[in-house]
Amino acid sequence: MATTVYRGPARRQDPGREGAPLGVVTNTFKVLKMPDVDWYHYDVGERDIVLIVSIISVTHLSLFVAFIKADTGKDASVGRRRGHQLMYNLQLSLPGVFPSQGAYDGKKNIYYTRKVESGEYDAVEDNRGPQRAGGAKLKIKLSLVARFSAQDVMKYALQGKQDIINMLQIVLRQLPNIKFQTPAHLRNYRVFYTDESKAPLGVGLEAWRGLFQSVRPTLTGLSINVDISTGVMYRGGELVTLLMERFGIANVRHLELSKTDPMWVKIRQFLRGVLVTWRPNPERRQAMSIEGIVEQAGLVVFEKKGDSGPEQLNIETYYRQTHNTPLRHPRLIGVKNRKGTIVPIELCLVLPGQLFKGKLPEVGDLSRKLLDFANRKPHHRLNDIKTGISPKTLSYGETNFVRESGMQIDLNPSTVGARRLPAPRIQFHGSEADITAGSWNMARPQRRVYQPEQAPNWVAINFAQEPIFDRLGPQLVQCLQALGVNVNSSPRIQNATGQNAMTTLQSVSQLRPLPSFVLVVLPESAAEIRTLVKQWGDMMYNIPTQCCRVDKCRSANNQYCNNVALKINAKLGGVNSVPIAPVMSEWLRKVPTMIVGADIGHPGPGVNDRPSVAALVGSIDMFASRYTYAARAQQPRLELINELDNMMVEILKDFWNMSPPPTPEKKFYPQRIIFFRDGVSEGEFDKVAQQELEKIRAAFNTLAEQNQEPLAKMRQLPTVTYIVVGKRHHIRFFPRQGDAANTSRSGNCQPGLVVDSEMTSPIYFDYFLQSQAGLQGTSRPSHYTVLHDENRMSSDVLQALSFALCHVYASATSSVSIPAPVYYADKLCAYVAAYHFNPAKLPPPPSGTATTTSDDKKAEINVAQWNAALGRTKLRPRLFFL
Questions:
Q1: Which residue ranges traverse the bilayer (predicted)?
Q2: DSSP 8-class letter at 836
Q3: Is 688 helix (H, G, I), strand (E, B) or coil?
Q4: Per-residue pLDDT for 96 more than 50?
């Protein structure tokens, strides 16, 4: 019976048996011997010291570490870089108190294998390093928080207890923490970036390669996950040069900006949070984090204390008189920090190794350069990882921190058992095909799509200012007709410009009958035209639109036109292919079942005046190939789908209305729901699952309590299986050397690889599935965690269903990396955010002088106003968002 009440993670089922067994190499390294010494945990607190100690001392020995201003006795905020240096210096200066270096995270936590004396110690400054502003002297106060026995460490680490895992993480990271003191590492403590492997991207950015490491409890013990990670960095050096490169500025005087200049907001957003130092003596200064920018920085007047009292002078005069550093361009903008310190940009130097967290600029071939750098062939990636744990970097076999703990780590990557699942067959109109290495061919022999649609009249609009349809039109018509789509071979063609875009679209909307679809050719950079086209087609006239960039259309080859044709058929409401597999028959065709994909798309880093968008897609046929949808705006970066209950009601009603059979007396609701949820971190599993399952149950109750005849037929609530699909992890699988049968042409494992034992979680029912072949780089498996299962699905059923659903993505002729409904929900979040809000109903954008909310503060927006501006297209269940 369905209860849809979360009572903790679903019980782990026995491992699956379907598929051919094999062994694969992983990027994990087993902990052969657990720590055999006691650990003493000291807390480095910056606030509420007495309160923290008094709470902890109820159950633990009481001791503690804080940075304190010696002259005032108040807490001092110390950054990670300086914290490491101060603790390192202190321990070296007092060998009698500190017989060995502790494992320190640079902020609040330090761990020793021996007890040290509590008390206050004078901080030892490094005269070669940056000094604290104002020259304030510091004391370091140590206090013991807890003692972990060797037995505690072994017991609780294998149970995934977070404070023990955190301690082991810090122990393993201690030597790299000391060696890799880049800003990128200090802000992302799990990845160690170095400039030994980097590549310029252009526009002031460069790519750096780094090493990720994390302690993972598994069914067979602790393992260390080590992987290669790529970060996009600001190019270090002159700030003026960086800005000129990023924004294509040829003359430095173009940086003499006012707050009303369109470039003002772009530069402010680009620089926010960037660490700079400045001349003179930049190596002696503490880095400053940029909070904003100011006009004519050299002319800003401030009050300076002088021998005869306060005096007024501007910044240009101050640097010339005090530092003998005249400004060449005093009218250039300057940067400021939260305290209001202003520095002219011509004096500023950007520290190297700072992560750029914004959206990559859409200029040139920047994305291609990044992919070329990041994509590493599997054998190259594995070799990089093996090199990474050598004494040169992570040094698992050399570091004193690991040796003193008694811990031993296998320096060879683990080999684990796996299985290769059989691929489904693919059914088309009147034919079937086997899948070869994760893909199938629509052209040899020529296949007709499973359910072709008709397009008796369609329109082509050309914004590209070149006669592109002479080549594109005939080739596209040929591909559509070959796929079985009945399409007019002589469409109406209209040329247009960005200036008359809406006039052209409105003229098309006056045609009778309305066109079946509109094909739009765009210039290489035409975001505004695309937005106009999508809003016109999706929200105003319910006409499917297919946009193509002119640089993709020029060759008009068969492969490109076939891909466009598949998208057009899906947008018209057709079905391109369906997978044939026993699990599809048993679980989708015998019992009415809805497959749901759910995701939340968040605004970009630093953007806090726009909402997050939550999206659901739900299947409405027995092949899980046709989908309806629901979407909502919600508070930025909220991880819970806040209106999931109302969204579920929408897609369940659509299931009733859109599913065959057509007669009301024979209609039905789904009896089972398989809910795939994307974008939930492991630390949020239980919280999100509990609240979202409550909302799903509320949706069922809403429908069951309706008095209308169609809705009253939900007499028995559907049973729900709730699965989180994870993509942002660092587990990778590699074929064993010499295993040609299980190695793809790209050097990856063959698609269908599943791992559900040995390296899976001791807490959750989970499995890894690599469903795609991978064309470039090393394929990433998806991580599935079953949190709730009223349908009592076995491991074999869950894995086979997940794999089959990776073959129903409408615009692909290969299996994709995640189930199609999850992929659709992910795309829909971005699509709705870009095109489905009515600009006339949106709140006014912030002014050019508005400040941006810092990342660590929760922004609040008027969600009701955003949802009032959010439309729902009548094009569903067509896949309009492809």
A1: 49-68
A2: S
A3: helix
A4: yes
Query: pLDDT tens digits, residue range 723-740?
Result: 999 999 999 999 999 999
CB atoms within 10 A of CB 372: 13
Q: Which pLDDT value is given to residue 11?
A: 92
Q: What single DSSP character describes residue 541?
A: S
Residues 259 and 254: their CA atoms lie apart, in Å, by 13
Span 128-155, average pLDDT:
71
DSSP 346-375: GGEEEPSSEE--SPPP--TTHHHHHHHHH-
Tell me the domains of the chain and their CATH numbers: 39-148 (no CATH), 236-351 (2.170.260.10), 452-571 (3.40.50.2300), 579-727+784-868 (3.30.420.10)
pLDDT, tens digit, for every residue of 22-51?
Answer: 999 999 999 999 888 888 887 764 332 222
Q: What is the DSSP letter of 741?
A: G
Could you identify the residue written with the tokens 């609240």? 691
What is the pLDDT at residue 60?
27
- Give the pLDDT band of residue 395 (cuts 50, 70, 90): confident
Task: Tell whether the model's pLDDT for residue 770 goes beyond 80.
Answer: yes
Q: Tell me the DSSP string of 290-356.
A: --EEESSGGG-EEEEEETTEEEEEEHHHHHHHHSS---S-TTS-EEE-TT--EEEGGGEEEPSSEE-
Q: Tell me, what DSSP letter sits at residue 262?
A: H
Give pTM, 2 decimals. Answer: 0.91
| 625-654 per-position pLDDT tens digit | 999 999 999 999 899 999 999 999 999 999
Query: 807 to each of 470, 640, 673, how far by Cα in Å?
Result: 34, 28, 19
> Average pLDDT for residues 68-96, to the nearest whole number?
75
- The CA-based angle 668-809-17, given to 5 degrees, is 85
Token pair listed for 854: 């810092």
Of 312, 316, 314, nearest in space to 330 by CA? 316
CA atoms within 13 A on the CB side of 852: 25
User: 30-44, 467-481, 615-629, 765-779: lowest mean pLDDT where?
Assistant: 30-44
Q: Does residue 57 register a pLDDT over 50?
A: no
CA–CA gap between residue 164 and residue 222 (Å, rounded): 12
Cα-based angle 190, 192, 193 (whole degrees, multiple of 5): 135
Q: How far apart are CA 810 and CA 619, in angstroms?
A: 13
Q: State the Cα–Cα distance between residues 341 and 335, nearest whole angstrom.
A: 8
Reading the block at residue 654, the tokens are: 């659509």
Provide the 3-class DSSP secondary structure of residue 733.
strand
* Token pair 């093996």 in the structure block, residue: 386
Sheet holding 578-580, edge to edge: 432-433, 425-427, 578-580
Closest Cα partner for 716 from 704, 726, 727, 708?
Answer: 704
Amino acid in position 191: V
- Give 3-state DSSP helix, strand, coil % of the chain, rounded to 5: 30, 25, 45
Which residues, 6+ apart, have CB-to-CB distance to 679 below 8 Å? 599, 600, 639
Those residues whose C-beta lies under 8 Å from the C-beta of residue 42, and which sit 6 or more positions away, are 63, 64, 65, 102, 109, 110, 111, 112, 116, 142, 143, 144, 145
Altogether, the residues listed in the chain come to a count of: 882
Q: Report whether 140 contacts 121 (CB < 8 A).
A: yes
For residue 203, give every residue at least 6 positions away whose Cβ sits within 8 Å of its Cβ, in sequence order, or none: 245, 246, 248, 361, 363, 364, 366
The amino acid sitting at 187 is R
H or E element in which residue 619 lies:
strand 612-619
Query: Average pLDDT in the 323-329 region?
Result: 93
The neighbour count for residue 456, using CB atoms within 10 Å, is 10
The region of weakest confidence among 73-77, 272-276, 399-403 is 73-77
